[in-house]
Fold this sequence. Notes:
The protein is of the alpha+beta class. It folds into 4 domains: 19-218, 2-Layer Sandwich (Heat Shock Protein 90); 223-390, Ribosomal Protein S5, domain 2; 396-535 and 575-599, 3-Layer(aba) Sandwich (Rossmann fold), CATH 3.40.50; 539-571, no CATH class. Helices cover 36% and strands 20% of the residues. The chain has 20 helices and 22 strands. The radius of gyration is 34 Å and the shape is elongated. It starts with 18 loop residues before the first helix and ends in a 9-residue tail after the last helix.
Amino acid sequence: MTAESSYSAKDITVLEGLEPVRKRPGMYIGGVGKDGLHHLLWELVDNCVDEAMNGYATSIAVTIHADGCSATVADNGRGIPVDIHPKYQRSALELILTTLHAGGKFDNKLYETSGGLHGVGASVVNALSQKLVATVKRDDATWVQEFKRGVSLGPIAKDGKARGTGTSIFFRPDPAIFEDVSFEVEEVAERLETKAYLNGGLKIVFRDEANKTSQTFHHEGGVADLIQAKVLNSGATPTIDTFFVQRKEEQGFRVEAAVCWTDATREKVSSYVNTIPTQDGGTHELGFRDAVVKAIRNYIETHDLQPRGVNISAEDIREGMVAVISTFIPDPQFQGQTKDRLNNPSARGIVDAIVRPDLEQWFHQNASVGEAVVGRIVQSARARAASRAAATQVRRKASVSHRLNLPGKLADCSSTSPDDSELFIVEGDSAGGSAKQGRDRRTQAVLPLRGKVLNTEQANLSKVLANKELGDVVKALGCGLGDHFDIERLRYHKVILLMDADSDGHHIATLLLTFIYRYLPRLIEGGHVYLAQPPLYRIISGKDTHWARSDGHKERIIGSLRKNSKPEVTRFKGLGEMMPATLYRTTMDPALRSILQVAIPSDQVLETDRVINDLMGKDPSKRFDFIMGGAGNVASLDI
Length: 639
């Protein structure tokens, strides 16, 4: 007889009560590792939070006991009902803790919104616990019932009088089920604090008996406070104020959302449904992302802020964004019991409709913030375009040594510590020779460039990559370009542009800054780029020597000298005319020099982009307007 023909009714197994949970715990809690273990705690905490979010509880207490393997979760809510169910002739408490799909959340009359919807949370905890003790205060009495691996050890018993109401559940996870039954205290504390943020005004007390510590989490500001904590913990620096929309309602949905932009290169969105973290996102998170992109596109179009030739993607808009979206939904449809993803189709459109108008209006009312965000987005779009193009044309090997792939003209320093090392990019071989001779060879490297470098604002990427002078700069820096850029490989933490103090020198410095701004923007963001301040004049008065960086500076120095003195004034035609020792003393010596750090304030990013595009771009009419607009202020020209 074959196996197929012997398959009959007697081979069918029926798992009753809580047997399915113990047989296949992964179906209910995702697994039997640390995540599954903590999921038991979250189920009980979420039940308490449900009481709070519906206005029946104001405080929750969570205790990890001294053994580290058992916990108690308590609230001051209404208390689980203890009266006898008319159909099943058992107490409601026992039904809830021993029966799958038994609870008070199937009827929206009792809970307008809740995290526990399947009626399996508490019973799953009971099934997977070696021991569970439920204590309920209601009807002026205390009621207690004890369970072992999901089975009641006796009927519910009255245990004296009580003041107030509430539920307290002690449980010890079953070591026969879990790989490790010890709770992670830091993870529990972090989760509880997030719950307090998402329920502004709720007090959560967390006690760790093993370490004899107690923490109280209470955040009246709710989501507005949470996003500040998220930004702080990310280590990023916010570039604008935070937008916040609170408890807007539509079709029974309530939404709290907050967003700000930072200097980070990735977006970070934390989403929640009825205070449950949805780690895999879902339709509510998609709706929020839609709202942000649409609001900013509308703002850009309304104020005509789209630069010519720049294609802004949704990815550019959300780069550096830190956001929190907390939704309260009457009947959420989660993907699985662990509730990691929301599937309600309507949530996407509803969240978009709630958030987008408020965010767009906020930008209109705060123009400086709006322009700062758009400026950051434009900069991101340009950098991403350059990165994509560079990835297809540049194939550079990563430097594995301080000495590999360096240009022949580079006079490197002996230090291998980027923190101590400086790179002087110098105009011309003559000035380069003086700088090489006068420098501190231990920490100062010198790279001379020939003539005026390519204007990268007017050149396509292939020309930029083919340009030898700019290629030498990239090789010397060691951090790569485009998708190959890695700030950790930057060989010098000070990159100093050292050009003549005349108009030609200023032009070359501007060309280099344009290249860095467009193709290596993180050097500026990291504070690594500087402008040297070499003297244009030497003024000798008696035994004193003064150095002037400009005509105005020269006149001020001469005006400060004694009236009868006749100073000797020498104008340098270029850095190459200076003796190496003079160049070092006036311009390169860290103890005596004056250098300017290149930085872009967050509220001037868009203006900076516009100015560079106008002055260095292909459209000559912009430069003509600039010249004609300032012609009346010019007293003399340096030709």
